[in-house]
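tool_call: predict_structure(chain=1)
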Amino acid sequence: MTCAPRSLTGHTGRMQAMAVAQLDDRPHLVTSDRGGSLQLWDLATGVETRRLADHTEVMAMAVTQLAGQPHLVAVEGVYGSKVAYLWDLTTGRRVRRIASGLRGIVSSVIVTEVKGVPSAFLVSFGDDHRAFDLATGTQTLALSIGTLRAVTAATLAGRQHLVVAHSNDEELEVWDLTRNLINRRRVDMPRTLWFMTGTLTDPEAEFTPQSLATVIVDGRTYTIAGCGDGTVRVWNLATGTLVGTLVGHTDLVNALAVVRLHGRPHVISASLDGTVRVWDLTAMTLVDRGRPVTAALLTHLDGRPHALTTGSPRRAIRAWDISTGTHREVPTWHKHELKTLAMAVLDGRQYAVVGAVDGMSLCDLATGGYSGYLEGHCARVHTIAVADLEGRPHVLSGSDRGSVVVHDLVGEEYRLRDFRDGQDLLLEKFKLVKDGMESVIAVDLARIGGRLYAISGNHRGSVEVWDLTTLTKHSLGFPPGELHLAALAVTDLHNRPHLMTGDRHGPVKVWKLALNSRDVDPVRTLVGHTAAVYAIAPVSLKGRPHALTGSDDQTVRVWDVGAGVCLATLHLPAPCQAIAAGPDGSVVLGVGHEVVALRLTI
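tool_result:
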Protein backbone atom coordinates (compact mmCIF):
# COMPACT_ATOMS: atom_id res chain seq x y z
CA MET A 1 0.00 0.00 0.00
CA THR A 2 1.36 3.41 -0.92
CA CYS A 3 0.04 6.95 -0.81
CA ALA A 4 1.82 10.26 -1.22
CA PRO A 5 2.75 11.93 2.09
CA ARG A 6 3.65 15.54 2.87
CA SER A 7 6.45 16.35 5.34
CA LEU A 8 6.55 19.16 7.91
CA THR A 9 10.10 20.21 8.74
CA GLY A 10 11.41 22.56 11.40
CA HIS A 11 11.89 20.49 14.56
CA THR A 12 15.49 20.13 15.70
CA GLY A 13 14.97 17.14 18.01
CA ARG A 14 13.24 13.79 17.89
CA MET A 15 9.45 13.93 17.78
CA GLN A 16 7.71 13.16 21.07
CA ALA A 17 3.98 13.72 20.67
CA MET A 18 1.33 15.43 18.57
CA ALA A 19 -2.38 16.15 18.32
CA VAL A 20 -4.81 17.84 15.90
CA ALA A 21 -6.89 20.95 16.69
CA GLN A 22 -9.26 23.30 14.81
CA LEU A 23 -8.10 26.92 15.05
CA ASP A 24 -9.90 29.70 13.16
CA ASP A 25 -11.82 26.99 11.29
CA ARG A 26 -8.57 25.56 9.94
CA PRO A 27 -6.96 22.24 10.95
CA HIS A 28 -3.74 22.64 12.90
CA LEU A 29 -1.20 20.19 14.23
CA VAL A 30 0.36 20.55 17.69
CA THR A 31 3.80 18.90 17.97
CA SER A 32 6.53 18.51 20.58
CA ASP A 33 10.13 17.30 20.32
CA ARG A 34 13.00 16.23 22.55
CA GLY A 35 14.42 19.73 22.39
CA GLY A 36 11.44 21.08 24.34
CA SER A 37 9.75 22.78 21.40
CA LEU A 38 5.90 22.92 21.32
CA GLN A 39 4.67 24.13 17.92
CA LEU A 40 1.41 24.64 15.98
CA TRP A 41 1.22 24.04 12.21
CA ASP A 42 -1.43 24.99 9.66
CA LEU A 43 -2.05 21.66 7.94
CA ALA A 44 -3.51 23.23 4.80
CA THR A 45 -0.33 25.20 4.10
CA GLY A 46 2.27 23.25 6.10
CA VAL A 47 3.41 26.53 7.73
CA GLU A 48 4.27 26.88 11.43
CA THR A 49 1.85 29.40 12.99
CA ARG A 50 2.77 29.50 16.69
CA ARG A 51 5.15 28.28 19.39
CA LEU A 52 3.92 27.84 22.96
CA ALA A 53 6.26 29.14 25.67
CA ASP A 54 6.80 28.53 29.39
CA HIS A 55 6.89 24.73 29.38
CA THR A 56 9.32 21.87 29.79
CA GLU A 57 9.57 18.83 27.52
CA VAL A 58 6.09 17.50 26.62
CA MET A 59 5.90 13.68 26.57
CA ALA A 60 2.20 13.16 25.72
CA MET A 61 -0.74 15.30 24.65
CA ALA A 62 -4.37 15.34 23.52
CA VAL A 63 -6.77 18.02 22.21
CA THR A 64 -10.36 18.57 23.33
CA GLN A 65 -13.09 21.20 23.08
CA LEU A 66 -14.07 23.11 26.24
CA ALA A 67 -16.70 25.87 26.05
CA GLY A 68 -16.42 25.68 22.28
CA GLN A 69 -12.70 26.44 22.27
CA PRO A 70 -9.77 24.09 21.50
CA HIS A 71 -7.72 23.13 24.53
CA LEU A 72 -4.60 21.01 24.91
CA VAL A 73 -3.83 18.52 27.68
CA ALA A 74 -0.04 18.24 27.87
CA VAL A 75 2.04 16.07 30.22
CA GLU A 76 5.38 17.73 30.96
CA GLY A 77 8.55 16.30 32.41
CA VAL A 78 10.87 13.41 31.58
CA TYR A 79 12.54 12.52 34.88
CA GLY A 80 11.09 12.61 38.38
CA SER A 81 7.46 13.60 38.86
CA LYS A 82 5.35 14.67 35.90
CA VAL A 83 2.73 17.42 35.67
CA ALA A 84 -0.36 17.57 33.40
CA TYR A 85 -1.49 21.05 32.31
CA LEU A 86 -4.50 22.34 30.39
CA TRP A 87 -3.70 24.94 27.65
CA ASP A 88 -6.08 27.25 25.79
CA LEU A 89 -4.84 27.00 22.20
CA THR A 90 -6.70 30.15 21.12
CA THR A 91 -4.73 32.34 23.53
CA GLY A 92 -1.66 30.13 23.77
CA ARG A 93 -1.74 30.25 27.61
CA ARG A 94 -1.92 27.69 30.37
CA VAL A 95 -5.33 27.51 32.05
CA ARG A 96 -4.74 25.21 35.01
CA ARG A 97 -2.79 22.30 36.39
CA ILE A 98 -4.80 19.06 36.07
CA ALA A 99 -2.52 16.61 37.87
CA SER A 100 0.90 16.59 39.51
CA GLY A 101 3.23 14.14 41.18
CA LEU A 102 2.77 11.60 38.37
CA ARG A 103 5.29 8.75 38.52
CA GLY A 104 6.59 6.71 35.62
CA ILE A 105 6.60 7.70 31.95
CA VAL A 106 3.20 8.87 30.67
CA SER A 107 3.01 7.41 27.16
CA SER A 108 -0.47 8.48 26.02
CA VAL A 109 -3.32 10.84 26.84
CA ILE A 110 -6.96 10.28 25.90
CA VAL A 111 -9.71 12.81 26.59
CA THR A 112 -12.98 11.02 27.24
CA GLU A 113 -15.91 10.95 29.62
CA VAL A 114 -15.59 8.96 32.84
CA LYS A 115 -18.91 8.59 34.67
CA GLY A 116 -20.22 11.52 32.65
CA VAL A 117 -17.31 13.80 33.60
CA PRO A 118 -14.91 15.12 30.90
CA SER A 119 -11.59 13.63 31.95
CA ALA A 120 -7.99 13.24 30.83
CA PHE A 121 -7.00 9.55 30.88
CA LEU A 122 -3.22 9.27 31.37
CA VAL A 123 -1.57 6.02 30.31
CA SER A 124 1.82 5.14 31.77
CA PHE A 125 4.56 2.63 31.01
CA GLY A 126 3.99 1.30 34.53
CA ASP A 127 0.87 -0.43 35.82
CA ASP A 128 -0.67 2.88 36.89
CA HIS A 129 -3.28 4.46 34.61
CA ARG A 130 -5.44 7.30 35.94
CA ALA A 131 -8.10 9.74 34.78
CA PHE A 132 -8.57 13.32 36.09
CA ASP A 133 -11.50 15.75 35.89
CA LEU A 134 -10.51 18.48 33.39
CA ALA A 135 -12.33 21.16 35.39
CA THR A 136 -11.20 20.38 38.95
CA GLY A 137 -8.22 18.03 38.64
CA THR A 138 -10.00 15.46 40.81
CA GLN A 139 -9.05 11.85 40.09
CA THR A 140 -12.04 10.06 38.49
CA LEU A 141 -10.56 6.63 37.70
CA ALA A 142 -7.57 4.43 38.55
CA LEU A 143 -6.83 1.24 36.61
CA SER A 144 -4.26 -1.50 36.98
CA ILE A 145 -4.26 -3.51 33.73
CA GLY A 146 -0.56 -4.05 33.12
CA THR A 147 2.13 -1.99 31.45
CA LEU A 148 0.81 -0.19 28.37
CA ARG A 149 2.77 1.47 25.60
CA ALA A 150 -0.17 3.13 23.82
CA VAL A 151 -3.97 3.23 23.82
CA THR A 152 -6.78 4.61 21.66
CA ALA A 153 -10.56 4.71 22.07
CA ALA A 154 -13.16 3.66 19.51
CA THR A 155 -16.90 3.05 19.27
CA LEU A 156 -17.73 -0.38 17.85
CA ALA A 157 -21.29 -1.71 17.49
CA GLY A 158 -22.47 1.16 19.68
CA ARG A 159 -20.14 0.24 22.57
CA GLN A 160 -17.04 2.03 23.78
CA HIS A 161 -13.81 0.06 23.25
CA LEU A 162 -10.14 0.56 23.99
CA VAL A 163 -7.35 -0.70 21.74
CA VAL A 164 -4.20 -1.12 23.82
CA ALA A 165 -0.58 -1.96 23.11
CA HIS A 166 1.18 -3.70 25.96
CA SER A 167 4.89 -3.31 26.51
CA ASN A 168 6.95 -5.78 24.42
CA ASP A 169 3.85 -7.39 22.82
CA GLU A 170 3.62 -7.83 19.04
CA GLU A 171 -0.15 -7.56 18.96
CA LEU A 172 -2.89 -5.15 19.97
CA GLU A 173 -5.72 -6.03 22.36
CA VAL A 174 -9.30 -4.82 21.93
CA TRP A 175 -11.27 -4.29 25.16
CA ASP A 176 -15.03 -3.69 25.49
CA LEU A 177 -15.48 -1.07 28.24
CA THR A 178 -19.21 -1.72 28.59
CA ARG A 179 -18.75 -5.33 29.73
CA ASN A 180 -17.10 -5.13 33.12
CA LEU A 181 -16.20 -8.08 35.31
CA ILE A 182 -15.22 -7.46 38.93
CA ASN A 183 -12.35 -9.50 40.32
CA ARG A 184 -13.35 -10.31 43.89
CA ARG A 185 -10.47 -12.66 44.65
CA ARG A 186 -8.47 -9.96 46.39
CA VAL A 187 -10.71 -7.63 48.33
CA ASP A 188 -7.69 -5.67 49.52
CA MET A 189 -6.82 -4.74 45.92
CA PRO A 190 -10.03 -4.29 43.91
CA ARG A 191 -9.65 -3.82 40.19
CA THR A 192 -11.82 -3.77 37.10
CA LEU A 193 -11.19 -6.42 34.44
CA TRP A 194 -12.50 -5.42 31.04
CA PHE A 195 -13.82 -7.94 28.52
CA MET A 196 -11.20 -8.51 25.79
CA THR A 197 -12.97 -9.09 22.46
CA GLY A 198 -9.97 -9.88 20.25
CA THR A 199 -6.48 -9.02 19.09
CA LEU A 200 -4.98 -7.23 16.08
CA THR A 201 -1.91 -8.87 14.57
CA ASP A 202 0.10 -9.03 11.36
CA PRO A 203 0.18 -12.70 10.22
CA GLU A 204 3.10 -12.11 7.87
CA ALA A 205 5.56 -10.00 9.88
CA GLU A 206 6.63 -9.02 13.37
CA PHE A 207 5.89 -5.49 14.55
CA THR A 208 6.07 -3.48 17.75
CA PRO A 209 3.23 -0.94 18.12
CA GLN A 210 4.42 2.34 19.63
CA SER A 211 1.48 4.70 19.04
CA LEU A 212 -2.22 4.31 18.24
CA ALA A 213 -5.10 6.23 16.70
CA THR A 214 -8.64 5.55 15.44
CA VAL A 215 -10.30 6.80 12.24
CA ILE A 216 -13.61 6.25 10.44
CA VAL A 217 -13.46 5.86 6.65
CA ASP A 218 -16.65 5.22 4.65
CA GLY A 219 -18.49 4.21 7.82
CA ARG A 220 -15.87 1.66 8.89
CA THR A 221 -13.74 2.05 12.01
CA TYR A 222 -10.00 1.51 11.58
CA THR A 223 -7.23 1.30 14.17
CA ILE A 224 -3.86 2.73 13.12
CA ALA A 225 -0.56 1.79 14.76
CA GLY A 226 2.78 3.53 14.45
CA CYS A 227 5.42 0.81 14.72
CA GLY A 228 9.02 0.38 15.76
CA ASP A 229 10.13 -0.50 12.23
CA GLY A 230 8.97 2.88 10.86
CA THR A 231 5.76 1.57 9.28
CA VAL A 232 2.19 2.68 9.94
CA ARG A 233 -0.23 -0.27 9.96
CA VAL A 234 -4.01 -0.06 9.51
CA TRP A 235 -6.59 -2.62 10.78
CA ASN A 236 -10.34 -2.91 10.26
CA LEU A 237 -11.43 -2.93 13.89
CA ALA A 238 -14.70 -4.82 13.26
CA THR A 239 -13.02 -7.75 11.48
CA GLY A 240 -9.58 -7.57 13.12
CA THR A 241 -7.80 -7.81 9.75
CA LEU A 242 -4.74 -5.89 8.64
CA VAL A 243 -5.79 -3.87 5.59
CA GLY A 244 -2.69 -1.86 4.80
CA THR A 245 0.85 -0.78 5.66
CA LEU A 246 2.21 2.73 5.03
CA VAL A 247 5.96 2.90 4.36
CA GLY A 248 8.09 6.03 4.43
CA HIS A 249 9.59 6.66 7.87
CA THR A 250 13.08 5.38 8.59
CA ASP A 251 12.76 5.13 12.38
CA LEU A 252 10.22 4.36 15.10
CA VAL A 253 6.80 6.06 14.70
CA ASN A 254 5.99 7.33 18.18
CA ALA A 255 2.95 9.59 17.59
CA LEU A 256 -0.18 9.59 15.42
CA ALA A 257 -3.07 11.98 14.87
CA VAL A 258 -6.16 11.89 12.65
CA VAL A 259 -7.61 14.90 10.83
CA ARG A 260 -9.94 15.76 7.94
CA LEU A 261 -8.35 17.86 5.19
CA HIS A 262 -10.49 19.07 2.29
CA GLY A 263 -13.22 16.74 3.50
CA ARG A 264 -10.96 13.65 3.34
CA PRO A 265 -9.61 11.61 6.29
CA HIS A 266 -5.85 11.83 6.82
CA VAL A 267 -3.48 10.34 9.37
CA ILE A 268 -0.41 12.23 10.54
CA SER A 269 2.61 10.28 11.77
CA ALA A 270 5.63 11.56 13.69
CA SER A 271 8.85 9.60 13.86
CA LEU A 272 12.20 9.52 15.61
CA ASP A 273 13.66 10.19 12.15
CA GLY A 274 12.67 13.84 12.77
CA THR A 275 9.86 14.03 10.20
CA VAL A 276 6.10 14.36 10.33
CA ARG A 277 4.18 12.75 7.45
CA VAL A 278 0.61 13.42 6.34
CA TRP A 279 -1.13 10.45 4.64
CA ASP A 280 -4.36 10.68 2.64
CA LEU A 281 -6.33 7.59 3.69
CA THR A 282 -8.70 7.79 0.73
CA ALA A 283 -5.72 7.63 -1.66
CA MET A 284 -4.90 4.12 -0.49
CA THR A 285 -7.00 1.03 -0.94
CA LEU A 286 -8.40 -0.18 2.37
CA VAL A 287 -9.30 -3.70 1.29
CA ASP A 288 -10.00 -6.52 3.73
CA ARG A 289 -7.97 -9.17 1.95
CA GLY A 290 -8.54 -11.40 4.93
CA ARG A 291 -6.17 -14.01 6.24
CA PRO A 292 -3.88 -16.37 4.31
CA VAL A 293 -5.81 -19.34 2.92
CA THR A 294 -4.65 -22.33 4.97
CA ALA A 295 -7.27 -24.93 3.97
CA ALA A 296 -9.30 -25.82 0.87
CA LEU A 297 -11.57 -28.68 -0.17
CA LEU A 298 -13.75 -29.57 -3.17
CA THR A 299 -17.42 -30.51 -2.90
CA HIS A 300 -20.82 -30.05 -4.58
CA LEU A 301 -23.45 -27.66 -3.20
CA ASP A 302 -26.89 -27.45 -4.82
CA GLY A 303 -25.60 -29.70 -7.58
CA ARG A 304 -22.77 -27.32 -8.55
CA PRO A 305 -19.02 -27.75 -7.97
CA HIS A 306 -17.80 -25.62 -5.09
CA ALA A 307 -14.61 -25.03 -3.14
CA LEU A 308 -14.65 -24.34 0.58
CA THR A 309 -11.75 -22.27 1.92
CA THR A 310 -10.54 -20.41 4.97
CA GLY A 311 -9.22 -16.85 4.73
CA SER A 312 -12.32 -14.74 5.44
CA PRO A 313 -11.62 -11.63 7.54
CA ARG A 314 -14.88 -12.38 9.39
CA ARG A 315 -13.78 -15.90 10.51
CA ALA A 316 -16.32 -17.41 8.13
CA ILE A 317 -16.05 -20.23 5.62
CA ARG A 318 -15.91 -19.07 2.03
CA ALA A 319 -17.98 -21.22 -0.34
CA TRP A 320 -16.82 -20.57 -3.93
CA ASP A 321 -18.91 -21.49 -6.96
CA ILE A 322 -16.12 -22.70 -9.26
CA SER A 323 -18.20 -22.13 -12.41
CA THR A 324 -18.86 -18.44 -11.74
CA GLY A 325 -15.96 -17.47 -9.45
CA THR A 326 -18.38 -15.95 -6.93
CA HIS A 327 -18.57 -16.85 -3.27
CA ARG A 328 -20.77 -16.60 -0.21
CA GLU A 329 -19.71 -16.71 3.41
CA VAL A 330 -20.89 -19.32 5.90
CA PRO A 331 -20.62 -17.81 9.41
CA THR A 332 -18.98 -19.68 12.26
CA TRP A 333 -18.96 -19.00 16.00
CA HIS A 334 -15.17 -18.69 16.03
CA LYS A 335 -13.62 -15.42 17.19
CA HIS A 336 -10.13 -16.29 15.96
CA GLU A 337 -8.52 -17.40 12.71
CA LEU A 338 -9.79 -20.54 10.95
CA LYS A 339 -6.99 -23.03 10.25
CA THR A 340 -8.43 -26.17 8.63
CA LEU A 341 -11.59 -27.66 7.08
CA ALA A 342 -13.16 -31.04 6.33
CA MET A 343 -16.54 -32.29 5.07
CA ALA A 344 -18.98 -34.63 6.85
CA VAL A 345 -22.47 -35.90 5.93
CA LEU A 346 -25.04 -36.39 8.71
CA ASP A 347 -28.59 -37.58 7.94
CA GLY A 348 -28.07 -36.62 4.31
CA ARG A 349 -26.99 -33.05 5.12
CA GLN A 350 -23.57 -31.57 4.37
CA TYR A 351 -21.58 -30.10 7.24
CA ALA A 352 -18.23 -28.36 7.33
CA VAL A 353 -15.97 -29.38 10.20
CA VAL A 354 -13.98 -26.29 11.15
CA GLY A 355 -10.70 -26.20 13.05
CA ALA A 356 -9.59 -22.82 14.40
CA VAL A 357 -7.30 -21.14 16.89
CA ASP A 358 -10.14 -21.35 19.45
CA GLY A 359 -11.33 -24.93 18.93
CA MET A 360 -13.48 -26.96 16.54
CA SER A 361 -17.09 -26.76 15.37
CA LEU A 362 -19.71 -27.99 12.86
CA CYS A 363 -21.42 -25.71 10.32
CA ASP A 364 -24.53 -26.68 8.32
CA LEU A 365 -23.73 -25.69 4.73
CA ALA A 366 -27.40 -25.76 3.66
CA THR A 367 -28.65 -23.31 6.28
CA GLY A 368 -25.35 -21.43 6.46
CA GLY A 369 -25.05 -21.42 10.21
CA TYR A 370 -23.22 -22.77 13.25
CA SER A 371 -24.46 -26.22 14.32
CA GLY A 372 -22.36 -27.21 17.30
CA TYR A 373 -19.08 -27.09 19.16
CA LEU A 374 -16.87 -30.20 19.22
CA GLU A 375 -15.19 -30.53 22.59
CA GLY A 376 -11.84 -32.08 23.33
CA HIS A 377 -9.29 -29.46 22.30
CA CYS A 378 -8.07 -26.60 24.46
CA ALA A 379 -5.69 -25.22 21.83
CA ARG A 380 -5.36 -24.35 18.15
CA VAL A 381 -6.66 -27.13 15.87
CA HIS A 382 -4.20 -27.59 12.99
CA THR A 383 -5.60 -30.54 11.07
CA ILE A 384 -8.84 -32.52 10.52
CA ALA A 385 -9.81 -35.69 8.64
CA VAL A 386 -13.23 -37.40 8.37
CA ALA A 387 -13.84 -41.15 7.88
CA ASP A 388 -16.49 -43.82 8.33
CA LEU A 389 -15.87 -45.97 11.41
CA GLU A 390 -18.26 -48.73 12.47
CA GLY A 391 -20.82 -47.35 10.01
CA ARG A 392 -20.79 -43.85 11.52
CA PRO A 393 -18.96 -40.64 10.48
CA HIS A 394 -16.02 -39.80 12.73
CA VAL A 395 -13.76 -36.74 12.87
CA LEU A 396 -10.04 -37.09 13.56
CA SER A 397 -8.25 -33.90 14.65
CA GLY A 398 -4.90 -32.73 16.00
CA SER A 399 -3.98 -29.62 17.99
CA ASP A 400 -1.13 -27.46 19.28
CA ARG A 401 -1.14 -29.26 22.63
CA GLY A 402 -0.28 -32.59 21.04
CA SER A 403 -3.76 -34.11 21.39
CA VAL A 404 -5.31 -36.33 18.72
CA VAL A 405 -9.07 -36.59 19.19
CA VAL A 406 -11.70 -38.77 17.48
CA HIS A 407 -15.32 -37.59 17.56
CA ASP A 408 -18.28 -39.83 16.78
CA LEU A 409 -20.57 -37.36 15.02
CA VAL A 410 -23.65 -39.54 15.52
CA GLY A 411 -23.27 -38.71 19.19
CA GLU A 412 -22.85 -42.09 20.86
CA GLU A 413 -21.59 -41.49 24.40
CA TYR A 414 -18.39 -43.14 25.51
CA ARG A 415 -17.86 -43.99 29.16
CA LEU A 416 -15.19 -42.14 31.08
CA ARG A 417 -11.89 -43.98 31.47
CA ASP A 418 -9.02 -42.98 33.73
CA PHE A 419 -6.27 -40.76 32.26
CA ARG A 420 -3.08 -41.21 34.26
CA ASP A 421 0.50 -41.99 33.27
CA GLY A 422 -0.21 -41.51 29.57
CA GLN A 423 -3.19 -43.89 29.39
CA ASP A 424 -5.87 -43.33 26.78
CA LEU A 425 -8.84 -41.21 27.76
CA LEU A 426 -12.40 -41.72 26.62
CA LEU A 427 -14.77 -38.86 27.27
CA GLU A 428 -18.41 -38.30 26.49
CA LYS A 429 -18.90 -37.94 22.71
CA PHE A 430 -15.20 -38.06 21.85
CA LYS A 431 -12.11 -40.23 22.29
CA LEU A 432 -8.78 -38.70 23.18
CA VAL A 433 -6.49 -41.08 21.34
CA LYS A 434 -3.26 -39.36 22.23
CA ASP A 435 -2.16 -36.52 24.47
CA GLY A 436 1.26 -34.91 24.70
CA MET A 437 3.24 -31.71 24.48
CA GLU A 438 4.30 -31.81 20.82
CA SER A 439 2.13 -29.86 18.38
CA VAL A 440 0.22 -32.17 16.01
CA ILE A 441 0.50 -30.50 12.60
CA ALA A 442 -1.04 -33.16 10.33
CA VAL A 443 -3.36 -36.18 10.48
CA ASP A 444 -4.76 -38.54 7.85
CA LEU A 445 -6.52 -41.89 7.64
CA ALA A 446 -5.51 -45.17 5.98
CA ARG A 447 -6.91 -48.67 5.68
CA ILE A 448 -4.26 -51.30 6.34
CA GLY A 449 -5.28 -54.96 6.26
CA GLY A 450 -8.94 -54.00 6.26
CA ARG A 451 -8.68 -51.91 9.47
CA LEU A 452 -8.85 -48.12 9.76
CA TYR A 453 -5.79 -46.38 11.15
CA ALA A 454 -5.04 -42.77 12.06
CA ILE A 455 -1.65 -41.33 11.12
CA SER A 456 -0.49 -38.26 13.06
CA GLY A 457 2.71 -36.24 12.77
CA ASN A 458 4.20 -33.52 14.95
CA HIS A 459 6.59 -30.67 14.30
CA ARG A 460 9.55 -32.69 15.61
CA GLY A 461 9.10 -35.25 12.83
CA SER A 462 7.55 -38.04 14.91
CA VAL A 463 4.86 -40.05 13.07
CA GLU A 464 2.46 -42.35 14.94
CA VAL A 465 -0.14 -44.82 13.67
CA TRP A 466 -3.22 -45.65 15.75
CA ASP A 467 -5.66 -48.54 15.29
CA LEU A 468 -8.95 -46.68 15.71
CA THR A 469 -10.81 -49.85 16.70
CA THR A 470 -8.53 -50.85 19.59
CA LEU A 471 -6.78 -47.49 20.22
CA THR A 472 -3.39 -49.22 20.10
CA LYS A 473 -0.30 -47.45 18.79
CA HIS A 474 2.11 -48.74 16.15
CA SER A 475 5.53 -47.41 15.27
CA LEU A 476 6.70 -46.73 11.73
CA GLY A 477 10.34 -46.89 12.71
CA PHE A 478 11.56 -43.76 10.95
CA PRO A 479 15.29 -43.16 11.43
CA PRO A 480 15.98 -40.44 14.04
CA GLY A 481 16.31 -37.02 12.45
CA GLU A 482 15.04 -38.29 9.08
CA LEU A 483 11.92 -36.11 9.05
CA HIS A 484 11.50 -32.35 9.41
CA LEU A 485 7.77 -32.67 9.05
CA ALA A 486 5.61 -29.88 7.62
CA ALA A 487 2.77 -31.92 6.02
CA LEU A 488 1.63 -35.50 5.42
CA ALA A 489 -0.96 -37.34 3.34
CA VAL A 490 -1.84 -40.95 2.49
CA THR A 491 -1.76 -42.22 -1.10
CA ASP A 492 -2.07 -45.59 -2.86
CA LEU A 493 0.98 -46.91 -4.68
CA HIS A 494 1.00 -50.42 -6.20
CA ASN A 495 -2.37 -51.01 -4.49
CA ARG A 496 -0.84 -50.47 -1.06
CA PRO A 497 -1.19 -47.46 1.25
CA HIS A 498 1.87 -45.22 1.36
CA LEU A 499 2.64 -42.09 3.34
CA MET A 500 3.76 -38.86 1.65
CA THR A 501 5.59 -36.33 3.82
CA GLY A 502 6.46 -32.71 3.17
CA ASP A 503 9.74 -31.51 4.65
CA ARG A 504 10.52 -28.10 6.12
CA HIS A 505 13.60 -28.04 3.86
CA GLY A 506 11.85 -28.99 0.62
CA PRO A 507 12.04 -32.72 -0.25
CA VAL A 508 8.81 -34.72 -0.53
CA LYS A 509 9.23 -38.37 0.47
CA VAL A 510 7.05 -41.43 -0.06
CA TRP A 511 7.11 -44.19 2.59
CA LYS A 512 5.58 -47.66 2.72
CA LEU A 513 3.11 -47.95 5.60
CA ALA A 514 4.51 -51.05 7.30
CA LEU A 515 3.39 -51.38 10.91
CA ASN A 516 5.98 -51.98 13.65
CA SER A 517 8.83 -52.06 11.15
CA ARG A 518 12.27 -51.36 12.60
CA ASP A 519 13.87 -50.26 9.36
CA VAL A 520 12.03 -47.84 7.11
CA ASP A 521 13.46 -46.16 4.04
CA PRO A 522 11.63 -43.87 1.61
CA VAL A 523 10.59 -45.61 -1.60
CA ARG A 524 10.56 -42.26 -3.44
CA THR A 525 12.22 -38.90 -2.83
CA LEU A 526 10.67 -36.13 -4.90
CA VAL A 527 13.24 -33.34 -5.23
CA GLY A 528 12.43 -29.87 -6.54
CA HIS A 529 11.05 -27.61 -3.84
CA THR A 530 13.55 -25.29 -2.19
CA ALA A 531 11.50 -24.34 0.90
CA ALA A 532 9.02 -25.91 3.31
CA VAL A 533 6.21 -28.00 1.77
CA TYR A 534 3.00 -27.27 3.68
CA ALA A 535 0.38 -28.80 1.34
CA ILE A 536 0.12 -32.27 -0.23
CA ALA A 537 -2.89 -33.39 -2.29
CA PRO A 538 -2.73 -36.98 -3.63
CA VAL A 539 -5.03 -37.66 -6.60
CA SER A 540 -5.53 -40.50 -9.08
CA LEU A 541 -5.40 -39.32 -12.71
CA LYS A 542 -6.00 -41.82 -15.53
CA GLY A 543 -5.58 -44.63 -13.04
CA ARG A 544 -2.10 -43.57 -11.90
CA PRO A 545 -1.14 -42.04 -8.53
CA HIS A 546 -0.31 -38.34 -8.75
CA ALA A 547 0.11 -35.58 -6.17
CA LEU A 548 0.27 -31.80 -6.02
CA THR A 549 2.57 -30.17 -3.49
CA GLY A 550 2.57 -26.52 -2.39
CA SER A 551 5.56 -24.78 -0.89
CA ASP A 552 6.86 -21.59 0.67
CA ASP A 553 9.09 -21.30 -2.42
CA GLN A 554 5.98 -19.94 -4.20
CA THR A 555 5.53 -22.94 -6.45
CA VAL A 556 3.11 -25.84 -6.84
CA ARG A 557 4.52 -29.02 -8.35
CA VAL A 558 2.59 -31.82 -10.04
CA TRP A 559 4.14 -35.26 -9.53
CA ASP A 560 3.69 -38.69 -11.06
CA VAL A 561 4.22 -40.50 -7.77
CA GLY A 562 4.64 -43.92 -9.37
CA ALA A 563 7.43 -42.74 -11.65
CA GLY A 564 8.83 -40.25 -9.12
CA VAL A 565 9.02 -37.41 -11.67
CA CYS A 566 7.76 -33.83 -11.69
CA LEU A 567 5.36 -33.25 -14.59
CA ALA A 568 4.78 -29.52 -14.14
CA THR A 569 5.75 -26.55 -11.96
CA LEU A 570 3.38 -23.64 -11.35
CA HIS A 571 5.10 -20.39 -10.34
CA LEU A 572 2.94 -18.31 -8.01
CA PRO A 573 3.02 -14.76 -6.57
CA ALA A 574 2.87 -16.03 -2.97
CA PRO A 575 3.41 -19.24 -0.94
CA CYS A 576 0.83 -22.02 -1.30
CA GLN A 577 -0.46 -23.48 1.98
CA ALA A 578 -3.62 -25.26 0.77
CA ILE A 579 -4.44 -27.58 -2.15
CA ALA A 580 -7.58 -29.53 -3.04
CA ALA A 581 -7.61 -31.83 -6.07
CA GLY A 582 -10.36 -33.94 -7.67
CA PRO A 583 -10.16 -37.02 -9.94
CA ASP A 584 -11.52 -34.97 -12.87
CA GLY A 585 -8.46 -32.72 -12.72
CA SER A 586 -10.14 -29.88 -10.81
CA VAL A 587 -7.69 -28.09 -8.52
CA VAL A 588 -8.10 -25.29 -5.97
CA LEU A 589 -5.05 -23.55 -4.50
CA GLY A 590 -4.72 -21.22 -1.53
CA VAL A 591 -2.06 -18.73 -2.66
CA GLY A 592 -1.40 -16.18 0.06
CA HIS A 593 -4.75 -14.41 0.59
CA GLU A 594 -6.12 -15.52 -2.78
CA VAL A 595 -7.96 -18.60 -4.11
CA VAL A 596 -6.99 -20.00 -7.53
CA ALA A 597 -9.07 -22.58 -9.44
CA LEU A 598 -7.64 -24.51 -12.39
CA ARG A 599 -7.92 -27.83 -14.23
CA LEU A 600 -5.10 -30.30 -14.84
CA THR A 601 -4.75 -32.06 -18.17
CA ILE A 602 -2.35 -35.00 -18.05
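agent: Residues 180-197, 412-432 have pLDDT under 50 and may be disordered. Proceeding to next step.
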